[in-house]
Amino acid sequence: MATVLSVPARAPATTSSNRVAWLVGVVLASGVGLASMRYLAGGTIMVPPPLKPNFLAHPLAFYVHIGAGTTALLIGPWQFLAGLRRRAPRVHRLMGGAYITACFMGGAAALLIAPGSNGGWVAAGGFLTLAVLWLFTTGMALKAIRDRRIDDHRRWMRRSFALTLAGVTLRLYLPLAFIGAVPFATAYAAIAWLCWVPNLLLADRVARGDAG
Question: What range defines the domain where residue 48 resides?
């Protein structure tokens, strides 16, 4: 009897935790996405001084990256709503197409921007690896859905969106680089990895758990 009763006792907590996590994700992704639009409106005035040389070297790539990344952040969380998939599958597919296109555009632009990152080769390596994995995971999600492998598609989408959220975690870390005693270039080199590696490890763990 104890075993039978333990299952429903845990389910509501798990569901509530998932909802809270989703809501936090929506707030952070939407907030950072909308705030990033200031770069599109304000141009170089809004760019922090340490990042400005790279911005000026690749202005078009930066604008594409910011615009596409913002689109992916705003759309991404809603693709995980089971209710949307059930009640409005066409909307889900249209939004998914927009998300995938945004990721491809943002990732391609990042390949141009990353080599000039403040922080030297360590930062460049971090952002280049992020860009490649962002393109790869999104491409695998697209291939899976075209092959009608729904479960694989969802797992790869988790990984893709975890990398999209690097835009959020980077901005959570970035103020520390300005207010700490560590030189900005040193801090930025660490942030280039910290902004996405934990995200991907967590998403991969969840995805593997779903597969089990």
Answer: 18-211
The residues, any chain, with a CB within 8 Å of residue 84's CB and separated by 6 or more, are 78, 91, 92
Q: Is residue 4 part of a domain?
A: no
Asked if residues 117 and 54 have their Cβ atoms less than 8 Å apart, the reply is: yes
How many beta carbons lie within 10 A of that of residue 131, not counting itself? 23
Task: Tell whether 10 is covered by a domain.
Answer: no
Total structural domains within the chain: 1
pLDDT along the chain (212 residues), means of 10: 37 60 81 77 73 88 92 91 89 95 97 93 97 98 96 95 93 80 88 95 84 56
Return d(Cα 133, Cα 110) in angstroms, integer: 11
Q: What is the pTM of this model?
A: 0.85
